[in-house]
RNA sequence: GGGCGGAUAGCUCAGUUGGGAGAGCACCGGCCUUACAAGCCGGGGGUCACAGGUUCAAGCCCUGUUCCGCCUACCA
């Protein structure tokens, strides 16, 4: 094959499209429902159907793709299950915004028409993110794509709801929930983001009912006082020990409310008197239950004051606060206002301040479910990687509270519950019941609320595989192998999947959980559209290619640390991809056929060496991926390909390939080059699928797609063991000698075009013989005219000197040597050696070290010390000689 | 309030049975050497946050301190 088939630089775009289409056409991502090969499965964390691919998606899906491709190379039957999430609130918001632009709203449309509009929207725009995942190279089994609102998944949701209800694990009731006045729905505790804000603590006088004096309560939300039904004090509070009054008059409302005693009240805070508003505070709600207090709801679902708020009725809640403070002031009931920084809850979707509000909602009783999830982690059935999250997981699970699952929106799974208008009986069933189970009335009204989107996501690992049917797919792929996701949804999603999986499948949903870090911008700030610091993966792909992006993401996924991302970083890996491309371009110039067997018993040193290094890097990459150490895998691959294969092997192979060492050497080297390049393509394929496929297709003798190759094991095609420490040690000496000559050239300012004459002296027979064998190689790589290897003897008069192991290298500089410069250089070298020796000497002078350290360690230090001594000695002798010549 | 993580070269970070302090980028010097200037060759640069302790030996283990970041929580 001639080189003109490969462009001079790698051009990713056409390549990416071509091979992605080819993979799909060939069905290379298809999983088999049943197979004799080991199963490996991952379910994708379903992106919001409204989403566009952001860098976080790019990361999580790159990691999954790396794993899936790697396991395919290992011959496993891989299922990567794709799909999207209906994202109730987010999607409804998007469609409502669109309706607003059209001058209408969902209420005008009505529920049915609105749902239709959402489906239309979904048909039109819902596949955007799926297509973007394809550009990322994601090797999902697309024929199996699922959507949380699909019929099958909806059936699963209903089934789960009904069963949990029947088991008493789902209940409906009046409780304080987090209410978003803008999204007009309840939120679970997790959907509330707490942020510390500067607010005020208002001290308000509540006059005693008998008209004799007052007590002072403190609150951050004075508007809730309109709904107060008691004032509470701690029975232990000294300040109120002698208090005989039984009630106060609620200011502005002129309602008499009791003074009650409850140990919940913190005597350290405020005045020690707590206003109790059972309808608008979770703690007050509990107190209210303990003391049988009325619940007066003064803030409505729209964020405006209710009829119960008296003259403040219809005021927006924060307006009401202002008006109320003013009113209190004018009546002299406001004792003081203190600044106070305190946590305020916000809606995770729209950032509106959340209102704790009394409301009738559906809940899941999670404690019993959580216990099993905890146990499965404790017993190691599920492993969380990195391990540091395990503790966080336990902390949350031990303190878990019931999960509010009903949402007052329209887009989602409508709760399968019906209320009989005749007798108020609630009927929960899979299908619309014909008649009330209690009174047989046919006048039943279905619950209008829908379920939290996470409720359906929690079923994802088995609902996507056909549950509640017992499908072959479930049999083969459940439990899945690993779940890859960000730690930010450990509670939202991961924990809930565990609970649901264990309850309904009686088996964990996955055996490993890999939690990746969060991506930030280069300053470490969270990326957000409003900050304008987002890195758009599609832009990156346009500019640098998908493989470069993937490589970057993999290389920066060190466990347990946030990833600071910037374009600059991608550039380096783009260069790497291009380097690989050019190395392949060079290789293909010399390769005309493929091979299936390598007789490696008697091959040349560079050939032995590269195979030995290859086998190690293959193992290292595999081991890293087995342990989710993506950065180790990427770096090991990078280091080997660039700095061993390209920098040394390709250069070392040139004399043979250019026919300077005879035909046997040429053929042997072609063969080794072929195997090494082929294996590189395979072990790089999971990280850089496109460029490896492109090269693979041009590699003579390759078959099919690289994604169907077998993960490399050089021992499998070599006649003798590949790992060769002797060859590595010898090659190391050769490369050090070459580097030392290059160093002299650089430091002495000798033009690369001048070919040097070198004499190497050594009293080690083996070294001499190796050096003589590799004479041609050294001459080529160090650009030498002549190289003589001899026993120590007469030193050349005008030469620069380097010491490598047992060899002394003399670079003849007849006529061009600058003695001052050489002295300086030698001094620097001696200094370096001296520093290194100091530490070694200190150890060897320490009796305790010699006595207590393990023998092999002592031996190593001794040997190193000796080598260093000798090196210093030789360098010093040279320096002395030069000084004499100079003088 | 509780918990977790981080502090290593100018920058971003690797560094798990404690025994050689590393990479990428940036920087300096030299090169268009027939795969690659998206490149090649050479080079400089670090009391591993601070203070103690364990050990023959500590970036790594223990204790404390300072500074950052995150998660979590019902102090109104």
Task: Please give a structural write-up.
By secondary structure, this protein is of the alpha/beta class. The longest helix is centred in the last third of the chain and has 32 residues, at 855-886. Helix 17 (546-556) packs across helix 18. 45% of the residues lie in helices and 18% in strands. The mean pLDDT is 92. The strands form ten sheets. A four-stranded antiparallel β-sheet has the order 6-5-14-16. A four-stranded mixed β-sheet has the order 10-11-9-12, with helices on one face. A four-stranded mixed β-sheet has the order 27-26-29-28, with helices on both faces. It contains 28 helices and 29 strands. It binds one RNA strand of 76 nucleotides through strand 8, strand 12, helix 8, helix 11 and helix 18.
Radius of gyration using CA atoms only: 37 Å
The unreliable regions are: none
Shape: elongated
Based on DSSP secondary structure assignment, what is the total number of beta strands? 29
Distance between the termini: 61 Å
Strand content: 15-25%
Structural class: alpha/beta
Strand order of the largest sheet: 6-5-14-16
What keywords describe this structure?
four-stranded antiparallel sheet, four-stranded mixed sheet, single chain, alpha/beta, 887 residues
């Amino acid at each position: 094959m001639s080189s003109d088939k490969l462009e001079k630089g790698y051009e990713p775009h056409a390549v990416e499209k071509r091979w992605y289409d080819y993979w799909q056409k060939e069905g290379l991502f298809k999983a088999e429902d049943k197979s004799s090969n080991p199963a490996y499965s991952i379910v994708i964390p379903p992106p919001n159907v409204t989403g566009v691919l952001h860098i976080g998606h790019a990361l999580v899906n790159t990691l999954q793709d790396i794993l899936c491709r790697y396991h395919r190379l290992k011959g496993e039957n891989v299922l990567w299950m794709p799909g999207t999430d209906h994202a109730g609130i987010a999607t409804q918001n998007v469609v409502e915004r669109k309706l607003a632009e059209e001058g209408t709203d969902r209420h005008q449309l009505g529920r049915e028409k609105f749902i239709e509009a959402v489906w239309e929207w979904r048909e039109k725009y819902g596949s955007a993110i799926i297509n973007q995942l394809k550009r990322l190279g994601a090797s999902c089994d697309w024929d199996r794509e699922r959507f949380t609102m699909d019929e099958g998944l909806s059936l699963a949701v209903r089934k789960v709801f009904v069963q949990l209800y029947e088991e008493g694990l789902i209940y409906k009731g009046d409780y304080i929930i987090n209410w978003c006045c803008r999204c007009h729905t309840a939120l679970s505790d997790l959907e509330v983001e707490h942020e510390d804000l500067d607010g005020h603590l208002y001290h308000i006088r509540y006059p005693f009912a008998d008209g004799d004096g007052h007590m002072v309560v403190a609150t951050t939300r004075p508007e809730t006082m309109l709904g107060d039904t008691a004032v509470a004090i701690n029975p232990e509070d000294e300040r109120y020990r002698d208090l005989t009054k039984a009630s106060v008059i609620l200011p502005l409302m002129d309602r008499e409310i009791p003074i009650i005693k409850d140990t919940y009240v913190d005597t350290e805070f405020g005045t020690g008197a707590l206003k109790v508003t059972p309808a608008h505070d979770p703690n007050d709600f509990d107190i209210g239950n303990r003391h049988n207090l009325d619940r007066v709801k003064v803030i409505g679902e729209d964020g405006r004051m209710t009829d119960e708020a008296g003259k403040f009725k219809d005021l927006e809640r924060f307006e009401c606060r202002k008006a109320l403070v003013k009113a209190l002031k004018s009546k002299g009931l406001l004792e003081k206002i203190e600044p106070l920084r305190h946590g305020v809850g916000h809606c995770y979707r729209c950032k509106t301040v959340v209102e704790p509000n009394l409301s009738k909602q559906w809940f899941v009783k999670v404690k019993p479910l959580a216990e099993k999830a905890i146990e499965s982690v404790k017993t190691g059935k599920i492993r969380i990687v990195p391990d540091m999250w395990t503790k966080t997981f336990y902390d949350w699970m031990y303190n878990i509270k019931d999960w509010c699952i009903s949402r007052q929106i329209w887009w989602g799974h409508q709760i399968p519950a019906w209320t009989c208008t005749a007798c108020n009986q609630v009927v929960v069933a899979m299908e619309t019941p014909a008649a009330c189970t209690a009174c047989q009335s046919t006048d039943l009204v279905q619950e209008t609320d829908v379920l939290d989107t996470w409720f359906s996501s929690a079923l994802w690992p088995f609902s996507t595989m056909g549950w509640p049917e017992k499908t072959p797919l479930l049999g083969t792929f459940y439990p899945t192998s690993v779940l890859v996701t960000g730690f930010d949804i450990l509670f939202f999603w991961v924990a809930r999947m565990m609970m649901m999986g264990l309850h309904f499948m009686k088996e964990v949903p996955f055996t490993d959980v890999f939690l990746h870090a969060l991506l930030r911008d280069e300053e470490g700030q969270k990326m957000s559209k409003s900050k304008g610091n987002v890195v758009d993966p599609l832009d990156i792909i346009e500019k640098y290619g998908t493989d470069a992006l993937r490589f970057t993401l993999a290389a920066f996924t060190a466990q347990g640390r946030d990833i600071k991302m910037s374009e600059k970083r991608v550039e380096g890996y783009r260069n790497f991809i291009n380097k690989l491309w050019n190395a392949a371009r060079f290789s293909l110039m010399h390769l005309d056929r493929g091979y299936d067997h390598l007789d490696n018993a008697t091959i040349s040193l560079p050939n032995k060496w590269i195979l030995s290094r290859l086998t190690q890097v293959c193992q290292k990459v595999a081991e890293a991926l087995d342990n989710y150490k993506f950065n180790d895998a990427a770096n090991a691959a990078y280091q080997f390909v660039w700095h061993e294969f390209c920098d040394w092997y390709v250069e070392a192979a040139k004399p043979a390939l250019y026919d300077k060492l005879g035909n046997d050497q040429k053929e042997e080297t072609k063969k080794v080059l072929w195997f090494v390049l082929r294996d590189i393509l395979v072990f790089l394929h999971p990280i850089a699928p496109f460029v490896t496929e492109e090269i693979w297709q041009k590699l003579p003798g390759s078959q099919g797609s690289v994604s169907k190759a077998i993960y490399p094991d050089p021992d499998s095609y070599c006649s003798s063991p590949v790992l060769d420490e002797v060859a590595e040690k010898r090659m190391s000496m050769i490369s050090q000698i070459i580097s030392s000559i290059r160093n002299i050239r650089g430091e002495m300012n000798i033009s690369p075009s001048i070919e040097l004459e070198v004499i190497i002296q050594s009293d080690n027979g083996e070294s001499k013989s190796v050096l003589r064998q590799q004479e041609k190689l050294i001459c080529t790589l160090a650009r030498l005219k002549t190289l003589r290897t001899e026993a120590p003897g007469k030193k050349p008069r005008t030469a620069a000197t380097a010491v490598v192991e047992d060899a002394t290298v003399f670079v003849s500089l007849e006529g061009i040597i600058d003695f001052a410069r050489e002295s300086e250089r030698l001094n620097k070298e001696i200094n370096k050696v001296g520093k290194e020796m100091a530490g070694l000497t200190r150890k060897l002078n320490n009796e305790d070290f010699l006595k207590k350290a393990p023998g092999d360690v002592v031996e190593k230090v001794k040997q190193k010390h000796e080598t260093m001594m000798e090196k210093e000695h030789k360098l010093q002798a040279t320096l002395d000689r030069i000084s004499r010549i100079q003088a």
